[in-house]
Amino acid sequence: MSVRSSNIIQYSTTAWSNKSDLLAIEEPLEIRIGYGAIDNRQQKSLSVTMRTPGHDFELATGFLFTEGIIYSYQQVESIKYCEDVGRQEEKENVVRVELKPDVELDFQKLQRNFYTTSSCGVCGKSSIEAVAQHCPVIPVSWTVKPEVIHKLPDTLRKAQHVFEYTGGLHASGLFERTGNMVLLREDVGRHNALDKVIGAMLVKNQIPLRNSVLLVSGRASFELVQKAAMAGIPVLAAVGAPSSLAVKLASDCGMTLLGFVRDNRFNVYSTPERVA
Hints:
Elements: E1 3-11, E2 16-24, E3 27-35, E4 42-51, H1 56-66, E5 76-81, E6 94-99, H2 107-110, E7 114-116, H3 128-131, H4 146-159, H5 161-166, E8 170-176, E9 181-187, H6 190-203, E10 212-216, H7 222-230, E11 235-238, H8 244-253, E12 256-262, E13 265-270
Parallel strand pairs: 3-6, 4-7, 10-11, 11-12
Antiparallel strand pairs: 1-2, 3-4, 5-6, 8-9, 8-10, 12-13
Helix pairs in contact: 1-6, 6-7, 7-8
């Protein structure tokens, strides 16, 4: 369930009335990992993120991948909700990802404990160095037509069923370079929506996504560019504006970054040769 009903008082210039409204659900999700030898398993809590419930296992998997903690789904033994967390309402808000015994962890990365809000995925990380990941350079091997880019926002919006009811969710849509939609995920957090997309494709063993175009419903932040680059996505299009650091990272890793993709126009901020 992604929405919840709420009784409201609606005011206008002439009158007020009692109505029922639908709200996008926002709840915390704690992501834990289990690791180590079979006879000496350890557990560590990595993050608490405010998210819209649904596709939680994809979110956890995508988060571990984009944070550089795992590199393939083959490193995951199992994913489950924790049953020993106390109150019933918390049982589906704590996910434990069991890593295979032979997975070697970078404990410096594991020390970057942080609280992730729905609006800012990197707030509270312990250092500037903790923000950056090593993103691979993406080769230019194909082009996308402008008319394909122009059609993406309408396709995304028509597929955003929860947004249609609430107006309160971000979306990440993964497309083929021909404009066909492959996958859509919605969430109160823009970074969560993208982690869900990447996690879903990681489970299918389809990363790197070298033939994909990604459209995000809001602005293009540094973190969204970084997550897309970690997944090997060559073209990131945003309905809103990019930040300066997002443009720099996109340029450094050879990503084509598009902004203000709406009303049959868009700006190209990096690697323009991918736009036919």
